[in-house]
Write a structure and sequence with these properties.
12 helices, MetI-like fold, single chain, 307 residues, 0% strand, 79% helix, mainly alpha
Length: 307
């Protein structure tokens, strides 16, 4: 257990190092300048800005400083938003993205597990759900978002178009982002239940005449949920990528929307800081999920040994 934790923490540090390095040099080698000062005519002003943000320093110096700032969680200041630090941008906009992400994960997990349970019990519904799965996988997030917004916001006027931070603003983005995860959670749950149903302890429970619902929730679902939990890391990665487009379409003032804006405007410190922040978030959350699954598996093995 201790070895697992130490190995995981070391892998997090190494992963962040490589992501830092790759992101830094990718930004440096892109065509044009990573910062645009062409609109400033005064050479003295340009020189002062370069000195302030250390843009005139050698690339090696900036790379080492970037690594140091990352591990102290100091991502610097924005070029475009004068006087605003990257940390303050994250603090202001991330809670909205986090709320949307949490609602999407809960909704995806609950609905996906329910669909998985139902389709595992009724073969006809399993065939029908396959058509739904293919449709959901085939439709990109931005297409589904545009369709939902056009019909439910513009035509039927059920949901508001203007953002005012109430629960109605989160429903359509949540449905859009969860369309892909629900499919895989349902599929994983269904396959896991079918596999567990063939195991000896389940067959023994059926032979003893235990109620079907008790077998499902006490024995089958409890042992088949591990594979679904392990998929949460992939769901989080999917949400991080999908939120960039979905937040822009629904005009949600979250971190994903502003990340796209700062990339378009070549705000180097913000782009670098948000990329690293998202990477750290994904790596740490994936590690924690793996650790939870590992602990759950170990407990299961101990119980098997005691029995």
């Amino acid at each position: 257990m201790i070895k697992k934790i130490i190995y995981g923490l070391l892998s997090i540090v190494v992963s962040i190092f490589f992501i830092n390095t790759i992101t830094f040099f990718l930004i440096e080698i892109i065509p044009g300048e990573s910062y645009d000062l062409s609109y400033i005519r005064s050479e003295a002003v340009v020189k002062n800005i370069e000195e302030k943000y250390e843009l005139n320093k050698p690339i090696g110096y900036r790379y080492v400083k970037m690594l140091k700032n990352t591990y102290t969680f100091d991502f610097g200041n924005s070029f475009l938003s004068e006087g605003r630090s990257v940390n303050s941008i994250i603090k202001e906009h991330f809670p909205i993205s986090a709320k949307l992400g949490a609602l999407t994960i809960i909704y995806s997990f609950i609905l996906g597990v329910i669909i998985g349970i139902v389709t595992s019990r009724y073969k006809i519904l399993k065939k029908i759900s396959f058509i739904y799965f293919v449709i959901m996988i085939s439709i990109p997030n931005f297409i589904l978002a545009a369709i939902l917004q056009y019909f439910l916001c513009v035509k039927l006027n059920i949901f508001p178009i203007i953002w005012n931070d109430n629960i109605l603003n989160y429903i359509l983005p949540c449905i859009t982002l969860s369309s892909y995860p629900i499919v895989f959670i349902a599929k994983l749950t269904c396959e896991s239940i079918e596999e567990v149903n063939k195991m000896d302890f389940v067959l023994a429970a059926k032979a003893r005449g235990i109620d079907k619902k008790t077998i499902l929730f006490r024995y089958v679902l409890k042992n088949s949920i591990t594979s679904t939990l392990s998929y949460l890391g992939t769901i989080i990665a999917n949400l991080l990528v999908g939120s960039f487009v979905v937040e822009s379409i629904f005009n949600i003032p979250g971190l994903g929307k502003y990340f796209v804006t700062y990339v378009m405007n070549k705000d180097y410190p913000v782009v670098m800081g948000l990329t690293l922040f998202y990477s750290i978030l994904l790596i740490v959350s994936t590690y924690l999920i793996d650790l939870i699954v590992f602990i759950k598996d170990n407990k299961g093995k101990k119980y098997e040994i005691l029995e």
